[in-house]
Specification:
Strand content: 25-35%
Number of helices: 4
Radius of gyration: 16 Å
Largest sheet: 9 strands, antiparallel
Shape: globular
Length: about 200
């Protein structure tokens, strides 16, 4: 696993852990006193991630448009689960044969309100992507906001989550803003969603 892929996988796994620590309600019902905004978070979480989209099998039109590929014979799986029933299913893709950004493309049973309630993240922007509510955000302690960006777009039963890692050292995309990249890629993916998503 490359440094870039390891970073993108670990950061996304931390999202769920931080959501739990931020005081989202558990299935038992009571809100945590550690976060006043936790009361607005849903009291239940879907038992699994949305299945109407597979982050490991992207449409060929998107693969071609974004120069997506992977190292090895297939995209690297980035499935994860943390306490509280939070899950992710998807894969990490690279671009321009490793000279561009990497993207962790997954579905999760986390919702937009759960992410908004998480004090470990700073919301960059609330946007609409393909008619769906979405938000871009960063870990609150990130220092290079151009290089890393997360975006979650609503789906039935959770969200589509994309994380872009785009250090300045990337020859092809290193000067591009990661939040602009993630909005464009998400728009291309959402356009291919079935109506049931």
């Amino acid at each position: 696993m490359t440094r870039q892929m390891h970073k993108i996988w670990c950061t996304a796994a931390a999202v769920g852990t931080a959501v739990l620590l931020a005081g989202c309600q558990n299935g038992g019902g009571g809100a945590s006193a550690t976060s006043p905004s936790a009361a607005s978070a849903p009291s239940t979480i879907a038992p699994d991630v949305p299945t109407s989209f597979n982050g490991c099998q992207l449409p060929q039109s998107v693969i071609d448009a974004e120069h997506l590929g992977y190292t090895g014979t297939a995209p690297m799986k980035s499935d994860a689960a943390v306490d509280g029933g939070i899950k992710w299913r998807g894969c990490i893709w690279t671009t321009y044969e490793g000279d561009g950004y990497s993207a962790n493309v997954r579905t999760t049973n986390l919702t937009i309100p759960m992410i908004e309630a998480n004090k470990g993240f700073t919301i960059a922007e609330r946007v609409t992507v393909g008619g769906r509510q979405a938000l871009t955000y960063h870990k609150s302690d990130d220092t290079d906001l151009r290089a890393d960006c997360l975006l979650n777009a609503e789906m039935k039963g959770g969200t589509l989550e994309l994380q872009i890692d785009n250090p300045a050292s990337n020859k092809v995309t290193g000067t591009h803003d990661s939040c602009k990249i993630v909005e464009k890629l998400t728009g291309e993916l959402v356009a291919t969603f079935p109506p049931s998503a």
